[in-house]
Fold this sequence. Notes:
Residues 166-378 form the UDP-galactopyranose mutase C-terminal domain. GO terms for molecular function: UDP-galactopyranose mutase activity. Its cofactor is FAD. Pfam families: GLF (PF03275), NAD_binding_8 (PF13450). The protein is α/β, with parallel strands linked by helices. The protein folds into 3 domains: 2-51 and 222-271 and 342-399, 3-Layer(aba) Sandwich (Rossmann fold); 57-97 and 199-212 and 276-332, no CATH class; 107-194, no CATH class. It has 12 helices and 23 strands. The strands form 6 sheets. A 7-stranded mixed sheet has the order 9-8-19-20-21-18-22. Strands 1-13-3-2-17-23 form a 6-stranded parallel sheet, covered by helices on one side. Strands 6-12-7 form a 3-stranded antiparallel sheet.
Amino acid sequence: MGIENGLSAGFSPDSYDAIIVGAGYAGAVCARRLVESCGFKVCVLERRDHIAGNAYDYVDEAGILVHKYGPHIYHTVNERVNEFLSRFTEWTDYQHKVLANIHGTLMPVPFNHRSLKLAFGDQKGEKLYQKLVATFGENKKVPIMELREKNDPELVEVADYVFENVFLYYTMKQWGQTPDQIDPSITGRVPVFVGDDDRYFPGAPFQGMPAEGYTALFEHMLDHDCIDVFLGVDARDLLKVSETSVAVCGRPYGGEIIYTGPLDELFGLDLGALPYRTLDMEFETLDMDQFQPVGTVNYTTSEDFTRITEFKNMTGQVVPGKTTIMREYSKAYTPGSGETPYYAILEDQNLELYRRYRERVAGLVNFHCVGRLAEYRYYDMDGVVASALDLSDEIIAQHS
């Protein structure tokens, strides 16, 4: 792999069979597959000064491995995704657990057997739990809408408690909404877990953290003689996309282009900006071994921030006497501000705007959109990888 800052003086798009915009999961997966399966020479253009996209991690001044763009916890049920990524990293045996700070008491989320006893007291909590078991069975995730539909006052009490103390205020902070703006169909899906398993992803057979960190995983994935990576390069300065052709550096380009960035920004927002939520992240290093008992604590009834992450609790790193935590504050994304667009706001009018942008490139056989920004959807890491594997399958089939 060659990594350069900026484009080299002799940069020639025609010397590459594929140009990939973005060195995050979508771009890196496609790059690796195309060089291995098609023998392509691939160029990766990355606007930031590092690879790995939002999964980028680094060692801070205290010696703590932190995730610059927020916590990334690997989990998947997809065997193909796991097999592919496992070529480039070993995994630690990390099982993610989340607690909610509810009026000063830390309770497991999703709400479970222990949460019920903490919220309602041992005796009443156990009684409510046994009713849940009798009604739904053990080790089941039950949406609170199903609790309400039973028309049982005790089950409705559980649903109301979870809605008000776990979901409502947290969602208002996360999405900038008032209670009347929160979609009832979403609130109804908030789960209660009827069981004692307090892992956040109990159904995922593959979960953990990359043993050397996410950035190292990407370094291994992009480490190939036929992949060149150029950092600090904004592809919008090089690409000109019309409904019939793609030009790179002012000349028509006939190779494959894989685009992983925001589609509206590629067209200068000329139809309007696609809305996102972004995050302000406040890092703090503390002179202690451990700040909180788990990697993530959600603040669901208090504080302006949504959650606190403690990285050592996720990575298993041992650094005596020091720990780094991060608070997250959610807000609306402003295009052109240098902020990171994290969460697409998937409302009907926004999806229609995205569809109009996507139509502009629908007729280009060599222009491909992949990833959460280019597809304007919410993906976990494994979802991005799965989408990139599917796209690369299609391109490989065309060139076989």
